[in-house]
């Protein structure tokens, strides 16, 4: 799979206008058809309609509340399968099936050459007590050995839900990012994708079968507001039907620009990391699931032995090629605690969201039972608790995300 070099402009506000096409941070975006005239979507994505309801009524409930039925089901299934920790061997290729406290790079590390050809190149760096500027130079040297250069995406190697993810364009930004990171923590630096369209694709395969299935496909939109030449960023956010309801997610991130007037027609990206809890917009894309994409993922997971369950975060050229199983890049493979994120579509029903979550954890028990029959041993629950405490402590120390 060939890769084109990625160009990037310094700053999200560096925008080149070419007719109605814009380049933002080196990524091409075009206006998307909508009932509103201030919606921008990346080329290759379906239009984003912001008419109607902006969020579902449960979309931003506390996460623990959404998982109350899952906990009850877990206890019942534990009695049935005679194990409380069976889901932790659903994907024995990585510790705890990637449930919590496991490095993002763990699954990349066990991937073979066929699978790695679809994963955006990465390197892992452990932060030390050295001067941040010196560490930034070391990181750049390491990237150079991999034939990578700035800009890159920096993300905590242990963490979830977009915590601490930043687009790093200069050595100064790289050093500042390292300086805010806890000593001993590890950062995964990854090549910036040449494409902006993104999807979350949930893949499941039973250990005794040669074929898997895609159980969920979700399109992930990074939200924009568009300047009118008179309004400040604060005012544009307040007027936006969705961003206005979620302004608490954007105010701290853009505190230095909130009183800035955005030029007329210029799109301003509110988030970089397409994480729902950070303000990204998710749309159910299950109608785009295609057997050709399933076959492509089968080939990839043939080369990741022992990994049977998880959500892939994928960047792609356009929806047609993604469905056909071509022109996409994997930025992350999430483990046993990952969700079928179509449940965060604004039109999703609460009953369907609960049903999807319960089905996921039922599947984890089934996969764990199959792997137990193959000889894999379940870890104790204390291993899970220790991993959760370790990750929770790290997440509190991470820098703010973009």
Helix content: 25-40%
Number of helices: 12
Unreliable runs: 1-37
Radius of gyration: 21 Å
Average pLDDT over all residues: 87
Provide the spatial order of strands within the biggest beta sheet: 13-10-9-14-15
- One letter per element, helices H and strands E, the order comes to EEEEHHHHEHEEHEEEEHHEEHEHEHH
**Annotation, overall tally of beta strands:** 15
- Strand content of the residues, in percent? 15-25%
- Report the biggest beta sheet as strand number plus sense, adding barrel if it closes: 5 strands, antiparallel
Give the CA-based shape: globular
First-residue to last-residue Cα separation: 29 Å
Q: Strand pairing plus helix content: what structural class? A: alpha+beta
Characterization of the model:
With 402 residues, this protein is an alpha+beta fold. Helix content is 29%, strand content 19%. The chain has a five-stranded antiparallel β-sheet. Strands 1-2-3-4 form a four-stranded antiparallel β-sheet, with no helix packed on it. Helix 2 runs parallel beside helix 11 (350-373). It is globular, with a radius of gyration of 21 Å. The chain starts with 14 loop residues before the first strand and ends in a 7-residue tail after the last helix. Mean pLDDT is 87; it is low at 1-37.
């Amino acid at each position: 799979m060939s890769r084109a070099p990625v160009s990037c402009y310094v700053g999200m506000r560096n925008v080149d206008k070419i007719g109605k096409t814009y380049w933002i941070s080196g990524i091409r975006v075009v206006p998307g058809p909508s009932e509103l005239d201030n919606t921008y979507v990346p080329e290759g994505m379906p239009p984003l309609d912001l008419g109607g309801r902006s969020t579902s009524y449960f979309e931003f409930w506390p996460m623990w509340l959404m998982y109350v039925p899952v906990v009850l089901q877990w206890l019942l299934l534990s009695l049935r399968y005679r194990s409380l920790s069976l889901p932790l061997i659903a994907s024995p290729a990585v510790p705890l099936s990637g449930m919590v406290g496991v490095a993002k790079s763990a699954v990349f590390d066990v991937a073979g050459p066929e699978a790695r050809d679809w994963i955006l190149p990465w390197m892992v760096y452990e932060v030390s007590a050295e001067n941040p500027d010196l560490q930034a130079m070391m990181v750049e040297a390491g990237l150079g050995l991999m034939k990578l250069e700035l800009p890159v995406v920096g993300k905590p190697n242990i963490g979830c839900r977009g915590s601490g993810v930043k687009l790093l364009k200069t050595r100064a930004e790289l050093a500042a990012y390292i300086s805010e990171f806890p000593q001993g923590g590890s950062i995964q630096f990854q090549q910036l994708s040449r494409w902006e369209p993104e999807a979350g694709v949930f893949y499941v395969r039973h250990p005794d079968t040669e074929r898997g299935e895609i159980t969920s496909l979700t399109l992930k939109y990074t939200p924009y507001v568009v300047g009118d030449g008179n309004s400040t960023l604060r005012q544009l956010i307040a007027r936006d039907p969705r961003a206005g309801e979620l302004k608490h997610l954007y105010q701290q991130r853009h505190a230095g620009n909130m009183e800035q007037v955005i030029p007329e027609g210029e799109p301003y990206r509110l988030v970089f990391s397409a994480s729902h809890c950070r303000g990204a917009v998710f749309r159910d894309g299950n109608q785009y699931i295609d057997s050709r994409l399933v076959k492509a993922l089968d080939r990839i997971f043939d080369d990741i032995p022992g990994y049977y369950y998880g959500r892939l975060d994928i960047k792609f050229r356009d929806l047609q090629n993604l469905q056909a199983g071509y022109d996409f890049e994997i930025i992350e493979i999430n483990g046993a605690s990952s969700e079928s994120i179509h449940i965060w579509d604004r039109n999703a029903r609460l009953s369907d969201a609960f049903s999807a979550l319960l089905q996921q954890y039922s599947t984890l028990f089934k996969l764990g039972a199959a792997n137990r029959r193959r000889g894999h041993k379940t870890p104790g629950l204390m291993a899970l608790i220790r991993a959760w405490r370790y990750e929770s402590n790290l997440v509190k120390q991470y820098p703010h995300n973009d």
